[in-house]
Amino acid sequence: xxxxxxxxxxxxxxxxxxxxxxxxxxxxxxxxxxxxxxxxxxxxxxxxxxxxxxxxxxxxxxxxxxxxxxxxxxxxxxxxxxxxxxxxxxxxxxxxxxxxxxxxxxxxxxxxxxxxxxxxxxxxxxxxxxxxxxxxxxxxxxxxxxxxxxxxxxxxxxxxxxxxxxxxxxxxxxxxxxxxxxxxxxxxxxxxxxxxxxxxxxxxxxxxxxxxxxxxxxxxxxxxxxxxxx
Amino acid sequence: xxxxxxxxxxxxxxxxxxxxxxxxxxxxxxxxxxxxxxxxxxxxxxxxxxxxxxxxxxxxxxxxxxxxxxxxxxxxxxxxxxxxxxxxxxxxxxxxxxxxxxxxxxxxxxxxxxxxxxxxxxxxxxxxxxxxxxxxxxxxxxxxxxxxxxxxxxxxxxxxxxxxxxxxxxxxxxxxxxxxxxxxxxxxxxxxxxxxxxxxxxxxxxxxxxxxxxxxxxxxxxxxxxxxxx
Lengths: 230, 230
Known about the structure:
Two copies of one chain form a homodimer.
Chain A: H1 2-9, H2 29-48, H3 55-62, H4 66-72, H5 76-100, H6 105-121, H7 125-130, H8 138-165, H9 173-185, H10 187-190, H11 199-212
Helix pairs in contact in A: 1-2, 2-3, 2-5, 5-6, 5-8, 6-8, 6-11, 8-9
């Protein structure tokens, strides 16, 4: 429990303190505290699962009372919704940036992959990937599914653009987008921020694998060994 | 061990009828009915989510009474455990087969990928991928995690064997195994048996993507376009 509390505070503020702990009044105080509640919820859902987490747990993790949590969000369902949003928004932004910048579609897709990997490696990854949208009411579920679909369509668009500009080989954009998203989403199942690899190193490894696949790269093929023999 | 043997028989009702509907007594009747209960549970969890499914739902789906369901399994947790087992067992078998057969490690890995894709596209995919192992007690969770880890280690072993025999390019086996498993596991999120693509076609598309990645394949590069320009 103490560990959880300590972790919940890490990252909530650059100096690692809870936004409730400081003496100074800051601008955007309400917003910072609301963000800390959402971030603590994400961590609690991640650790215990959505159905095994109560607002009491989240309040305890933050060192505040339950009414304080209710001041920022209506209920647990809204917290889950906000966690989904917090994770999906940066991916949507990475796609928007990719559509505006130059370069081949493959280069732009690689940037999206990096943004996507970072979002999934964040504390919101669990909610984005492992939480069930059945736990959201119809309106919230509709909004989240629309966002997910927008991201899926954006990746398919980049794959098609890559086939057009010659930077991506012939592929089925739908299946390939699912394969990319699946590999990336799965990061939420295995990645922990305290492990040896940084999120950036994971993203680089993924970009390399997605680009080249499993076959030995042409330059690495030992002389005399033809592609047919591998 | 009996559990494993039983799993292989799931699917014994190719006509889709309930084993309770028939008039004839068959050998292995108990086993067939138990498998039907597990299969119905998998479908119900898939449709409603584990926490929103009761044994009443499963009994109603099968057209039997709740005590009939209790005759085959102790409780909902055991049903979830059996669903995990039913999905993971064929992947484990595919890995065992791959270790025994000849060919390059990449060919053998491709066969594992096909078996993996088929298992995830089955009705057990949802449980294997989307159910939370927190919903299982410690002993069952331990068994499922041991099976998952065995599969992960088997894939890493094939990747290392491929780097040794020259059929797979230099890669980080851990990250690459996670990327492969993630893309495959994600099939449970989007694949429905009634859609245009068969599970085999999905598996083929995945094998192609994993082998070659996104870059245009050498032969498909238009004349005069160098790799550097793509």
